[in-house]
Amino acid sequence: MGSQFSVIRNGRLVDGRQFNGARFDILIEKDTIVEVVPPDSQAPENSTVIDAAGTLILPGLINAHTHGDVSLAKGLGDRWSLELLLNASPLTSEDFLLQDKSLAARLAAVEMVLYGCTACYDLFSDFPTPSLESLEAVGKAYTEVGMRVVIAPLMADRTFWQAVPGMIDALPRNLKQKIEKIVTQPGDIAINAMRDAIVNWPYAQDPVYLGLAPTIPYHCDAAFFRSCRELADEFGVRIHSHIAESKLQAIAGQQLFGCSLTEYLDKLGIISSDFTAAHCVWLDTADIQRLADRGACVAHNPTSNLRLGTGVAKTREMLNAGINIGIGTDASTCSDALNMFEAMRMAAYVSRIHQPD
Questions:
Q1: End-to-end CA, the chain
Q2: Are residues 152 and 281 both part of a single domain?
Q3: How far apart are CA 112 and CA 187, in angstroms?
Q4: Residues in CB range of 68: below 8 A, 6 or more apart
Q5: Omega before residue 165 within 30° of 0, cis
Q6: What stretches of 264-329 adopt beta strand conformation (E)?
Q7: How much of the chain is in helix, strand and coil states, percent to nearest 5?
Q8: Which of 42, 125, 157, 180 lies 20 to 30 angstroms, CA to CA, from 15?
Q9: Quick one: 144 and 256 in the same domain?
């Protein structure tokens, strides 16, 4: 019978804290790291030896924000704005069959693992509303690849055209009539579907968890957002939303609510320590402090921000305020790859646009 122990030898260990590239051996029992020891230390008899010579060994990376459903549509649009992407990219996956959703998630997971990423926050699109069957297919794909994941399906009860102030009224009559026929399902349908999925979720021990992703504040009615908060509080799941990603979003928020999107969500009681705000490009100092005071996290997506021309987030100011920032690749439609090393490098570069560090 084979040994339950494995030892990784000759690798150079880097964790950004204690280990900075020196050689160490790593002793593993089953699937748990037991000890980090000097090179060539004695290991239990019959241990499986893995020779890691010429490699760096580092902790698994965490992708704070991505969209696995569009992994089949990499680099979809050149010189697109965010708003064009929001309207075009659903066409790539809205007619997916169950096996298509599974394949898209599996490809996303495999790509991330190949780049050293072992966990992610996936805001998966499931049209027209989330279903347990679809989410199980996505969860199974991540489980079989071996990734940890929070799957938070995007949800909204307003279309893009309904959400942006004055958009429908500005259209020619013939186009306006067509657009007015495009509607989303009522928010309570999505809420009930997510309740069913959470109650019957089979993968929580893997660990593959569910979350809630009311997509963009003005795409969701206030009552819908409050229902998301109630559901999150009831079951202890997290909430993730795109906040002030573009200038249009920031301006629309002011026009609709008379305040910033961050202040609006705070008034609704949405922002707390279980809330992740994605992008956060168009925040002022008060918005940043508000997120910090509530213990919220920010998912920083520098590559897609540059690709779509939405701007540069004030990450140094956020860090100084005490906000926990995670780095994300965003979707491969607008960042071209799910490569966390590229995302980290880009985050380091763009942070110096505002100030030297």
A1: 54
A2: yes
A3: 32
A4: 104, 105, 108, 109, 120, 122, 124, 138
A5: no
A6: 275-279, 297-300, 324-327
A7: 40, 20, 40
A8: 42
A9: yes
Strands 56-57 and 5-14, by their bridges, are parallel
The CATH number of the domain holding residue 44 is 2.30.40.10
Whose CA is closest to 334, among 310, 312, 313?
310
105 & 248 share domain: yes
Distance between CA atoms of 282 and 245, rounded to whole angstroms? 6
Strand partners, 37: 25
Closest by alpha carbon to 141, among 115, 111, 113, 103? 103
Beta strands in 39-112 (DSSP E): 48-51, 56-57, 61-66
Query: Using CA atoms, how far apart are residues 37 and 24, in angstroms rounded to an integer?
Result: 6
Q: What is the pTM of this model?
A: 0.93
* Tokens 């999505």, residue located: 190
For residue 187, what are its two tokens?
Answer: 């928010």
β partners of residue 276 = 240, 297
Q: Which of 36, 57, 78 is the last residue of a domain?
A: 57
pLDDT for res 356: 75
- Regarding whether 105 and 45 lie in a shared domain, the answer is no
Using an 8 Å Cβ cutoff, are 60 and 15 in contact? Answer: no
CATH of residue 227's domain is 3.20.20.140
Which of 32, 57, 82 is the endpoint of a domain? 57
Position 19 scores a pLDDT of 87
Q: In terms of domains, do 232 and 169 share one? A: yes
Averages of pLDDT over runs of 10 residues in the chain (357 residues) are 85 89 93 92 92 93 97 85 85 85 97 97 92 97 97 94 88 86 88 97 90 97 97 98 97 96 98 99 98 99 96 97 98 94 96 81
Which ranges in 80-186 belong to alpha helices (H)? 82-88, 98-114, 132-145, 160-163, 173-179
Same domain? 229 vs 255: yes
Alpha-carbon distance of 153 to 157, in angstroms, equals 13
User: How many domains, in total, are found in the chain?
Assistant: 2
Residues of the domain holding 137: 61-354
| Residues 14 and 144 reside in one and the same domain | no
Residues 263 and 315 both lie in one domain: yes
